[in-house]
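About this split. The held-out portion is used to measure sequence recovery: a designer receives only the structure tokens and must propose an amino acid at every position. Recovery is the fraction of positions where the proposal matches the reference. Here is one held-out target exactly as it appears in the evaluation file.
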């Protein structure tokens, strides 16, 4: 029923949730539940996006770095708060000791758009990073100040 669907779904929604609803045979309550579900979730500050928009919010961005004399993969990875393996993988580097001055490296970063109810801790936990790393990657000095719609870089 519509009520059963609302009671099952609404309490479990958290920022970043994906709710898949079927409206065919065997799901007769769904069309009735959707308008109420949508309005209740919007009232809580949630927004709705297409799958394409959702995927765009977590794809690598276009940060690059040009190798200078004395650079190592480790020093570059540390500078951008990414792992050496992620940096090597993003650039198809198999020999971690071999870099060329002038070589342009792609820095693997992911972005996340802050939603209502998010905290730095919940975002850090979701991506397997520390709150400190998240703050450093974004120049955040007050961990309690996040804005809905703010785009954060997620260090790898």
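Reference sequence for scoring:
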């Amino acid at each position: 029923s519509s009520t059963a669907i609302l009671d099952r779904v609404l309490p479990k929604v958290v920022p970043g949730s994906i709710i898949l609803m079927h409206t065919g045979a065997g799901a007769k309550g769904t069309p009735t539940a959707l308008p109420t579900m949508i309005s209740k979730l919007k009232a809580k500050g949630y927004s709705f996006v297409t799958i394409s928009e959702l995927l765009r919010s977590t794809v690598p961005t276009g940060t690059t770095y040009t190798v200078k004399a004395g650079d190592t993969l480790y020093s570059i990875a540390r500078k951008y708060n990414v792992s050496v393996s992620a940096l090597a993988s993003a650039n198809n580097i198999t020999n971690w000791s071999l870099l060329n001055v002038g070589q342009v490296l792609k820095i693997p970063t992911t972005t996340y758009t802050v939603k209502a109810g998010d905290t730095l801790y919940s975002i850090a936990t979701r991506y397997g990073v520390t709150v400190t790393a998240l703050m450093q990657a974004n120049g955040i000095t007050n961990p309690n100040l996040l804005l809905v719609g703010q785009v954060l870089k997620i260090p790898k």
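Annotator remark: The chain has a mean pLDDT of 83.
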